[in-house]
Amino acid sequence: MGRRESRIGRSDRGERGTNSGGKKARKKIDEDEGGGEYDDHRRLADLVDSATNSPLLALDDRSLVSFKALVRRSDANVHAAFDLLYDKLKKHHSQVRYLGLLLMDELFTRSKLFRSLLVPVFENFLLLSVGFRSDYPLPPPQERASVLRKKAIEIVEKWNDMFGQHYKPLRLAHDYLKKTLRFEFPNAREVATLAQQQRRERERRTQDLLKKKLTSLKADYPELRAEIHSTLEQVIECVAILTERKCGDDQQEQFNLDSDEDEFEEYGARNLRSARDEVEEQETIPHETGENEALFDTLRDLYRLLTSRHLVSTQEWLSTLMRVDPEEERQARDTLLRDVIDLRNKLLKAREVCEGAGIERSEGASSKSGADGDADEIIWEEGEVLISNSAISEAIEATSAPAAEADETTRVGAVAEFTAEANKSESEERKESVINEAEETEDTSLKAQLLKEAPVLKWGAFLERWGSDRAIPANNRGLEFENHWGKVDYDVTIPAEKLAESSLNLRAVYYSAEKTEIPPCLAPLRNGGFCPRRDLKRCPFHGTIIPRDSRGKPLEVEKQKPENLSDDSWENKDELDSTIPSESRNVNVELVQQAIANVRQKDEEFKKKVLEDKANVRRERAKRAREHNDACLRAAAIGTSGQGLAEAFGEDVITPESQPKKRRCGLTALLRKKPTAKDRLSRRLLNGRVRDATATQLARDEQAAYRESFPNQCDEDSESAESLQDTCSSIPDILVNMITGLEEFYRFSDWPVTYVHYFSCLAKFVIN
Amino acid sequence: MQKESCTKGWGRTRHHLGQTAIRLTAIGWSFEHKNAVHSVGNNILLITMLSSSKEIVITHEVGINSLHVDATEGRYLLSGGSDGSVVCYDTVYPLRDSASLCKQHVAAFKTDRRVPRGHKFAVSSVQWYPVDTGLFVTGSFDTHVNVWDTNSLQVELQYDMPGKVHSVSMSQVATSHLLIAVGSEDPMVRLCDMATGACTHTLAGHRDAVLAVQWSISSEWTLYTGSCDGAIRFWDIRRAGSFKVLDQDTSQMGRRPPIVKHREWPISSEKSKKLLKRAFGDKSGATSSHSRKSAAHERVAPKRVHPGMASVNNYATAHNGAVKALLPTNDGYFLVSAGADSRVKLWDVESGCDTLVNYEKTRVKGNRATQLALSPDSSLLFVPTYTTIQVYNLWTGVLLKTLRGHFDNVNCCEFHPYEQEMYSGSNDRKILVWNPPPPPRIDEDGKDVCSTKAKGASGEAEEFSTRPDEDAWSD
Fold it and tell me: Which positions in chain A touch B408 (Cβ < 8 Å)?
């Protein structure tokens, strides 16, 4: 009966798995029990198998839930689950053990029966999960093993914290791991308690601070409240006056006025009314005009006070009051809190009123204008900056204008002009500023004239005694000081005639290099601009700085060279000047120049030719090498039978082992070693064929040596001769293999091709 | 108060070494105690497990080599550590403020290498003075045997040995001598006299280091020694040479027939008889050679030739490896030996024959002395086996239980003389207490005390609090 039932259970297992136990209810009870247990065990086994057969580090939530529900159903299931999991823990795979351990943890914390089953074998359990004995190491893969160990230690600690009191083996194990083997436990409990303690401490400190704040607030509150109220009243008054005016202007809203006044006196007393007020105010408050400017100013000040001080402070109080823990003064705190909230609402309303009046906007405008003023000032001060953009463009114009003349002097002149102009503009501006100031302070023309004439000097000590001939005290600091050489006369003076000597009334002039304008490079840039670099002689990007036209084209390029030449032969020219009569001088100069030019041209040509030759040689060599490589590859492809080249390389050789399998990301994949680039390379180089070839060649060499040393024996030994013939016939094959192997090596390494080339030559020689 | 009682407890022998011999005459009482325990039910002992109510808080965090409970009060457990320290634990009174379920027993005193003339290296063997707790004897790998005064915790006597000391023993029944038998790396067994403070005898006969030394329970002159050469020798200290060398080839089936007749079986009669029948009864054909041998033995025995002189018998071996432990049964008729050949054997003392009890699955390895234990009624044998302790029925050799709890090799077992408690010391620096589980304590409400206590204890951070030992299925 039971067997039959079990067969049925097996047959429709999948069905049951999908729609849980719905059909079960229909069956008879006795049948259900027998078959159900069996079924449960099978399902448990399936669940455990599927849960532990995953490369992930966490359990699947859904299957875990069903697993737990299943185990919970009966004690027999707990037993079965324990057996299954313990078996999993014995598997030679750390990942399986890890997942099994996670499942065990779930059950251990829940089921007493499970605990009582596991604790007697706890040492073994630790051996399998922590692997604390060196003769029973954890199985591969290595990284999962370390994960497993870490998790196991964590779990042991957790279990010990939870149930150590009831299970002595747990306690002992924990002690042994911690104290004797000195495993590093996460110490979660201690860490948590420590963190909690710290948090409590922090809270206590903040509470202390808050309480202090509260007491101070209590003391200061009436005063501050009065202050805020006065501010609010002022705002109300301002607004009232404004609205009054408007109403005075606008007779239509006469009827509103009386009630308004009443209301303003008890501002904020009733919400409804104040809301209405607000609306009215927003409607009624007029815009700023010249007349009510003063009022608006006051309002603005008040607004600023409100937003920057009162609102901020009320906000602060509020947060203090809310966060503070009132132990015995709850009542007082609550009233205060209510009061502060009230106050804040009033303030907010007042702010809205102000903003409705356009305070904020005007405030922004004023600040904007202020900024403009600043900008003006900045511009004014910028006058002192040596070159502005306009100056540069001017300079460009200046240089471009005489471009037609195109000679060197103009260039120099242009630059000089450029600098002069820049200086002039600067000084002019400065003067103007001075004048402006003068005009501002005094309008008397004499002084202005004098000021115009007066030189502007840097301040110095001499200015203090300019033109005076009085004696001055030596100790002008007024301090009494002692001198260890003797007594000091504090009233000693320096006579007027000595002043000149002591250079106290002499103007000291120090040399300071004149600020010269360095012209910009002005070479055309890709973005359409000009190079703004100012280098003395050479721009690092555009070479020597030369005068350019408005588009950045260099002027007088053509003339550069000959001029340089003439520069070079300047001395000769001088000599010629001195010796040769003036008529023939020009002819001579021309001749000399021509000669030099000829020589230089020849040199240039020669250099060029040499370079070309070199390049040709190089190209030729590369071409030859390429040909050789190709030939070798071709030879290999033809020479090796079967799979040819590929086989020789050990590449893409289709064997049953290396056939592309379905990629499994399962547990076996974890165990497999991942091949590195090095492995791949070495496998290719050392593949069987090449190795065999080398071995054969070595054998042949040996035979050859033998033959050389004992030539007469060779004829007699027919067998050896035969084998020799065999080897000889296979020599080309071997060599080609070797070459291809090397070729492959070359492909993967940085070695020059010449080695391969050399080797292939050797091979050819042998083949022939 | 406990501490005081401890220190006062060992007042009796203080500086009276000369007089102890007189007091030894009154020693017979300890046997009466033991006999009282005999009848306390073996069935409970069979479920011996790791004690959940008793715990020894280790003071010296080193491997434990040797344990001994004093026979006078049955209160103090002496332990020798592998760093040369000796610690004494009070096994009766726990720490007063140990609130948890497990009573914690702490050290009463401790001596170590800082004491003048204290042991420098591992203590291999400890033993209380059999008469009272005023003295104890320790042997160490630093080649010294020390006699300590418990009150002052100073070394009273020190004996130099030629090599590492493996075992020391004092006779429980001696009334006319005060000798400490010492087995050391030297093949000679030495007897040190506590009354004179000098070595009186040197017993020559072994060919290798002596690991086990035990005095006979029945005769104060008889000494058993086991050596690394595999021999177990019996000595009469009044005569020269050993009078018996146990031979593993001389065997007899079971216990001697006359004893089976008149002695009551320690295990329940029906079961034991069945066992006996299974073990020996139906093997008449197989025993022919043995009977012939024993017959030969009987022929030789009446002659009483001193075997120390007869070179033929002198080379007999009891084990095919070092004899690591010897333990006479409490009636003195049998001797249990454990050898490095992974064998435990039960010898008939009188005939010197192996009783051929097959102890299942014994694993005794290594070349260090171990300490076996027997329950007071000599029914259960405790054998340290790697990290476990195996419990055997002494008479049938059936493995009853394997006690798991240690995490490193167990070095020694010691059964409490008057209580149903066993102590084991191991290299994992723990002394574990093994006893039958206490009967469940029930409250007035009918609830288990343990679980309610556990509930009361939990109240800290939720995540890490100790949980009651109950099912907790949240989902």
Answer: 176, 180
